[in-house]
């Protein structure tokens, strides 16, 4: 497969899934202009690192990975470093069983540390497999599972089927 | 039950508004990375959706906007409307008095993100509308003092082009004192970059004046040859050379039509006898391709 074919495949993919990638970027950076910048930058990065795309079938996870990294870099640069470790999550624990009658699910999702939020977004909104999420985030599968589990806890979502996590 | 919550979240996620510019930006970025000729299907689909929402929203808008500021405000908060750049009648001056008729409609552009640009355009429209009205009432008083007579003025606007990229607004003023004179003025806005386009800004350098003028002369000659009733002030030995069409002004009236063609417009009497009215020339793009800055607008 020649170089040009790979480039065209990337281009086709980007054109087709631009909305998805915009949504993902937006979910991380929370600003329409920044999100568009992220998408543009990701495309440019994708082309300059096209050699790292070993197998065109993996273009989806490959591109997600570039995009997530670009978005996280952006957040770091913006000095709004969003801590993503367990401490951060436990810091947010406000106590025992605080029961809000109108629990705002969306706000709860937005309040999650970005690494937890992206797990939820990739797994449930973008419908990636756990293994793919791990690949995108460059984490091992167990870490992703743990994050997903904790994120769902935070969102007070109890999955009926534990296998889904 | 858990899945239901997730479904709800997913739905909200999927409802994230996608900016209109995204498709353009993605294409631009691909181009910058050396990939050309991407099929255009997607853009068409989105354009259709936007057109449909304009059709629905616009009908209500025109009726309601003057009567209810609260409604106008609430409408501008509907996301899809927020993305739209549109033109509305902002103010209307009407005079009907003993043979003197004036109808002046002042347009207003709404929905540009660049509020400075939007304000400067609207202020210009309002200022010119006011001046027209004041000029008219002054003339009217003068006319009455001198024993009355007939005069009229009609000014308004029409949206010449409204694509997802380009908005061209044409404003006309028809002055009737005995015979009538007509003036056309155009403003063309790039909705995506949020800039007002000027004729010089489209071209690499001043060559366009000659290139466009030569093409217009060619078209004039062709038209006159084809139809004996068509007259332009060109190659006519009876007319003083200074009155003949020589070349376009640097900032000649122009607009860009929906097919991305450059249209040059001349006021009544400018290049032809009054019976020809306001005349327009479509400049073929292949004549311009070498001197255009890019093919973003004109293609």
UniProtKB/TrEMBL annotation, chain A:
InterPro entries: RNA_pol_sigma-70-like, RNA_pol_sigma-70_dom, RNA_pol_sigma70_r2, RNA_pol_sigma70_r4_t2, RNA_pol_sigma_r2, RNA_pol_sigma_r3/r4-like, WH-like_DNA-bd_sf. Coiled coil: none annotated. Keywords: Sigma factor, Transcription, Transcription regulation. The keyword Transport does not apply. It comes from the Bacteria. Residues 14-80 form the RNA polymerase sigma-70 region domain. The keyword Transcription applies. Residues 104-155 form the RNA polymerase sigma factor 70 region 4 type domain. Belongs to the sigma-70 factor family. ECF subfamily. This is Sigma-70 family RNA polymerase sigma factor.
TrEMBL record, chain B:
Residues 202-285 form the DUF3298 domain. It comes from the Bacteria. Pfam families: DUF3298, PdaC. Residues 97-169 form the Deacetylase PdaC domain. Keywords: Membrane, Transmembrane, Transmembrane helix. Coiled coil: none annotated. This is DUF3298 domain-containing protein. It comes from Caproiciproducens galactitolivorans.
